[in-house]
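Title: [Solved] DUF502 domain-containing protein 3D structure

Original question kept below for reference.
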Amino acid sequence: MSPKLKLKVFASRLLRYFFQGLLILAPIGITALTLYWAFVTIDNLIPKEIIPDDTSYNFLKYKGVGFALVLILVVVVGYLSSSFIIGRIFDLFDHLLERTPFIKYIYTSIKDVFDAFVGEKKKFDHPVLVQIYGQDVWEMGFITQTDVTHLGLEGYMAVYVPHAYAITGKVFIVPKERVKPLENVSAGEAMKFAVSGGVTNI
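Solution (posted by the thread starter after getting help):
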């Protein structure tokens, strides 16, 4: 084998090994960076710069203390909301925010999104295949409303279709006969399949 051919083979192998390493390290690195970003963001919710150095609260400046305190606060609020009296107070405050002009649009939108994913009224737990652009083309989606007669459409339902490689999506109002429920596919598997562009196996 000539030196030129050997160099070409070596370069080809080197490039292949580089991409193999990239396939292994890129998901790990991006996941680690995302978790670190979430950790730092939550940890910085407590403004450490306003805490004097010569006080007993100086420990709040340590890395991770703010993150732990925020998690404890969330757990405590969840625990208190399960009691009857405190739960009624939270309900009154919730009702007040839902009635306050302008604020209600922001608050109810954010609340509905969280309820859709992790609340008791989870919406993205009914994966379906839906025909939108043609009879032979199917999209992965989730039923958000089974009846939209209040919109003046009889026999239609609302289906949310997530975008690939994004956290966004679109809502389509389609006839019920163009929606096919996925009985043997979990909501998590369907979401991963849709967001990954169909790369992930179901």
